[in-house]
Design a protein that fits this description.
By secondary structure, the protein is an all-alpha fold. It has nine helices and no strands. α2 packs parallel to α4. The longest helix is centred in the middle third of the chain and has 35 residues.
Length: about 300
Amino acid sequence: MLSHIWSRIRPLTAQQRFLFVAGAILLASALIHGGIAVGALISGQEWSGPISWRKPVVFGVSFGMLSITAAWVLRLLPSTRWGWIPTIMLGAFSVIEVTAITLQKWRGVPSHFNTATPFDVAVFGTMATSVQLVVVALVILLIWVALKFRGNKGERLAVIVGLLSLLAAGYIGSQMIQVGEAHYAATGSVPYEVVFGADGSAKLSHFVGMHLVQFLAVIAIIAPARRRLALVAIGAIGGLAVFASVSVTAASGSPWLAPDPGVGALGILGAVTALVALISAVRTFTPRHVTPESQTPAPVG
């Protein structure tokens, strides 16, 4: 199965390789800093907080996976020279974003909401610009997918739902920034953790929205051709239900383990539905499912 997945995501063009290398660098950074984080936890340091090893780890994983996923999406699109525009915007500025966050941790200062010195202001501004350009790249990819997609129907659904979910997660991230900046303006201190209301877990909602695309991509890649579209659709319905549940819970200011009963039931049902789709795709996978219909078209140029 792993060899099949690799055959479907491995980069074939220079643009795809650029994104793949960017993603690999970020994941390698996350792995290294994850080892440092483990040592820090053993020595009694906290995982959370504005100055923690958590940030280089989680941001490295998220942006690394995003770059590699974008490389997979490019495999399902026609190869064009102007494709370098979203490629560079997404890959390069993902690396810049994580580098800025990692740099601030090594300096021992907060990466977000930190305006203590002109240098810190410049770093935070660079991070904001980098994220905005990554979002623009995602919008370009979404429009490109809508107009020129060359993959199968299951892959198309996975990519469109995943990109829309990513953009929704980006919006939630912008709301988190606004909350954090309001806290800083009111108190003069960087918030320990950004929450909506009393205890709304905005980070969980942001995380689910960012990584739904990878979940759906796996289903689209390993599911048999005859069931691919249906399983991706079931996985998308389940994943979106979970995303909606944790987002509504966060917006209400409630902790994610104590949601409104109806919203909590939606999340549980969504998680079960998504898991059923994934398990079904795994159980029905065989190498025979690699058919001409499911093959990615050869790159042009």
